[in-house]
Amino acid sequence: MQLYRAHVLVCGGTGCVSSGSKKIEQALTDELAKQNIDKEVKIVETGCHGFCEMGPIVIVYPEGTFYCRVAVEDIPEIVSEHLVKGRIVQRLLFKAPVTEEQVPSYKEIAFYKKQQRVALRNCGHIDPEDIKEYIARDGYEALAKVLTGMTPNEVIEDMKKAGLRGRGGGGFSTGLKWEFASKSPGPKKYIICNADEGDPGAFMDRSVLEGDPHSVLEGMLIAAFAIGADEGYLYVRAEYPLAIKRLKVAIAQAEEMGLLGENIMGSGFSCRLHIKEGAGAFVCGEETALMASIEGSRGMPNPRPPFPAVKGLWEKPSNINNVETFANVPVIYLHGADKYASVGTEKSKGTKVFALTGKLRNTGLAEVPMGITLREIIFDIGGGIMDDKKFKAVQIGGPSGGCIPEQHLDTPVDYDSLTALGAMMGSGGLVVMDETSCMVDVAKFFLNFTQKESCGKCIPCREGTKRMLEILEKICDGNGVPEDITTLEQLGKVIKNTALCALGQSAPNPILSTLRYFRDEFEAHIYQKKCPAGVCTAMLEYKIVAENCKGCGACARVCPVGAITGEKKEAHTLDTSKCIKCGSCIEKCKFNAIVKG
Amino acid sequence: MIKSAEDLRRLREEAKALTNIRAGQGVEIIVGMGTCGIAAGAREVMSAVLDELAKRDMTDVRVTQTGCIGMCEKEVLIDVVRPGETRITYGRVKPQDISRIINSHVINGQIVEDLVVAKLD
Amino acid sequence: MADINLTINGQKVTVPEGITVLEAAKQIGIDIPTFCYEKGLTAPGACRICVVEIKGWRNLPPSCITTVAQGMEVETESPAVVEARKTILELLVANHPLDCLSCEKSGNCKLQDYSYRYGVASQTRFEGEKHEFGIDDSNPYIYRDLNKCILCGKCVATCRAVSDRNVLDFAYRGFNTKIATFMDTDLKDSTCVYCNRCVAICPVGAIVDKTMMGKGRGWELEKKEVTCTFCDSGCKFDVNYKDGKFMGVTAKSPDQGRPLCLKGRLGIELIYNPDKSELPLINKDGEFVETSWEEALGIAPIIEKLTAQKK
């Protein structure tokens, strides 16, 4: 067996690949050979570390040194300094945002400090294409325990005790879901993994599939055993090619090892798993639409009941959980349901992965215990607002979620508290907005998404979201009338009450929650014809502040429509009738002499 | 092919050897790899350490390297750190000493006194 | 089967287990509006016009797919229900051509009926984009104006009910969703056989029988049901009369297992149309003109020879 004195982990998640990690891996391979230590140092391509903002990420073990934003040019230095001489390359270490201090170790970085990684336990630490690395970290041990020592009922009871709730959005009790499917009679049942992650900005499921595919397979097998299924599907969106590739590798390796297929570990339990690639419809993340799509029909939701547990895929009892839920499953059986349930709040157990995006210093994936406050997530893990701007709102739960303002930041995060605030846990998308975001515009953005992705089956969603969007567009264009707010609220209520599926029922959330907390912004648009954040261009006017203008002419040169005129070294003037509000002049002006408002 | 839970556990022990290095536990051997160390033959000592560990199937030992610590004339220097014990620095180490250091100190906790140049708490 | 006791609009009612709230309401003479529901064919729960209020339920469930349960308290015209229905109708009306003056379906249109029932005027709160689909006038039998379509999906269901047809399905997403043939072609270029079962089931004026256009309003026509005897399927057709005058034959709502077909419909027309010519028609310079049987069958020369022989 070949032993290595050092392991260099190069992140191969999609985020880091797009910032160039493939080239780095190649450079590293070449450099190790050149310096003749390729027999002593092993390169491991891992899945996502979550801190994509800082990619490409390279971690050197045994020290656990965390290098970020590594470039190909840095490789010779890392090899000759660190790997040969043992001297850490200081300039590539992560710099703490406020103190500017360099942080050598992974675990010391504020972004990771408050995190508790359960679903992401292996992401970034193992080679996802090598089943042995998963097994080395107790992989498939939970399955072994379940298959050799537990009855399906005990498995379900443990899941109920652990209190895991669906991580895909609904937040339904996983144990109960399994129980329903298990009690449904019939010799043929299906286990389905929903990997049709589609919320804008959310990528935790992709990271798990790319970084730790076996944990999902193991979770599915345990669930299959619990409900009595012998076949399963992973419905993965086709826009995740790397995830699909790694899943295929994982399935092939597990089959070869005898951990998937006939008579798993000699227990008599058999289960086969297939991959079904989705064709890019957001609504296929809804379980009934997802099953329709697997069957080859148009992905449109069907009313429940009948629930999938009774009549699911091909009318057989089926159980659907999402990727993150399945990734949590092995941990529960490995360390016990009580241990799992010891983390979190009374009704929401365990941890949740959030995808941090927006105006934050540190963006990426963060897995935190339930009950942590939004303030901790945003200001401690996320490092606060970029450019020292003022926090305005955080949008949680994807397009079906809602916006939460400053005054609620200290609320402990769990399924129920977020719903009470008019948002929802959803899949865990977390978009932070600062004072430069217009809340009407934000609501419009999310509604535009749900509107385009509506399947068109039920009238409230298909026609209603279109009209809501039109009203928002009207308000943003400065043509809003006072009745618009009442219409939005009334229409929102009807859609919520009557739409067929969860996508439609939650489509008005972004509007209703912004109306709840930021009504003054809507009113400013409608009554004063002003956009307080300066986003809605129709209501803006560009002006030159004469005392600041030095007459350099930079603005006049860049203006595409010739709206700015003036003599050299004298204050210029701007013709608002010609101005198209493109903002080029503001960007060019060095003296803050052009303002919009 | 895994045919039972025991098979899985056996395979795990084997596989752990491959990734132990990332766990950050166990004994650490630090080889001085400054210019002085390399000039005195640190590369060969490093290879000897790795060979010896592989021969003995010792997967829980971490091998790291460090730069010059100022005792250049005593190179090659290697440190052995056993968790909770004094850090021992050996000097003028030759590849042929490695087997002895690993056998008596790393495995059995008996310091190889004749090679010691420093003891640190 | 066990009996279920429930209350609908304050009225106590006992119904058999397993039926829907819609059916239960119907038993005591309460009419709940429906667009997408067709008894025995489809109940996709899509249009949401049949929503009702059930005490203790979170949302307003559609009555066509909600089965009755013991002790249920249902309100079919509560303020919340009426508000929802009105809003749904307003949304449909806002995206509808509203040419009721000349629409074939006027007087027989569910959208019109329900808008009247719930007081929804043609001027709604919503002014915005309307569909601008092209009209499919590509064939002699079906006139398709998808701008009037409310996407209830009944045409898709009925078309699919005959195994080798399956011509229609939903296409596109969101506001752009429409009913389309394969590759979204006109009917002429699809596998459609013009059985008109979709025409018979369409609740609005989106798919109409082209041969009946302009021949009379729904309430002017007197219908006589006939059973087709061309094959053993026994499909039903309507023979339409206006003021006692024959107007045409139309497909009647298809029952389970009844294929309906163009041959049957045209054949029945041949039987019931009093104006039908006793002579065959032949295409001469693009015009069909009456001709003799001899010419039509191409046996004129033979008859000529036979006549000559006789002589």
How would you sum up this structure, described in words?
The complex is a heterotrimer of chains A (597), B (121) and C (311). Helices cover 39% and strands 15% of the residues of chain A. With 597 residues, chain A is of the alpha/beta class. Chain A has five domains: 6-113, Glutaredoxin (3-Layer(aba) Sandwich), CATH 3.40.30.10; 131-341, Rossmann fold; 351-434, Roll (Ubiquitin-like (UB roll)); 439-528, NADH-ubiquinone oxidoreductase 51kDa subunit, iron-sulphur binding domain (de novo design (two linked rop proteins), Up-down Bundle); 541-596, Alpha-Beta Plaits. A five-stranded mixed beta sheet of chain A has the order 12-11-15-13-14. A four-stranded mixed beta sheet of chain A has the order 2-1-3-4, with helices on one face. In chain A, helix 7 packs across helix 10 (213-227) and helix 19 (483-498) crosses helix 21 (509-517). Chain B is an alpha+beta fold and 121 residues long. Chain B has a single domain (23-120), classed as Glutaredoxin (3-Layer(aba) Sandwich), CATH 3.40.30. Helix content of chain B is 36%, strand content 19%. Chain B has helices at 5-19, 35-39, 42-55, 98-107, and strands at 28-32, 62-66, 78-81, 87-90, 116-120. Chain B has a five-stranded mixed beta sheet with strand order 2-1-3-4-5, with helices on one face. Chain B is elongated. With 311 residues, chain C is α+β, with helices and mostly antiparallel strands. Chain C folds into three domains: 3-77, Roll (Ubiquitin-like (UB roll)), CATH 3.10.20; 93-272, Alpha-Beta Plaits, CATH 3.30.70; 281-310, no CATH class. Helices cover 23% and strands 19% of the residues of chain C. Chain C contains eight helices and 13 strands. Chain C has helices spanning 21-27, 79-94, 110-117, 154-160, 197-201, 262-272, 293-297, 300-310; strands at residues 3-8, 11-16, 53-54, 73-75, 142-144, 169-171, 178-180, 207-209, 221-227, 236-242, 245-251, 281-284, 287-290. In chain C, the strands form five sheets. A four-stranded mixed beta sheet of chain C has the order 2-1-4-3, covered by helices on one side. The A-B interface holds A 1-7, 9, 40, 61-64, 83-87, 125-126, 132-133, 135-141, 144-145, 147-148, 256-259, 265-266 and B 1-5, 7-9, 11-12, 14-19, 21-22, 24, 28, 30-31, 33-34, 38, 46-47, 49-50, 53-54, 57, 59, 62-67.
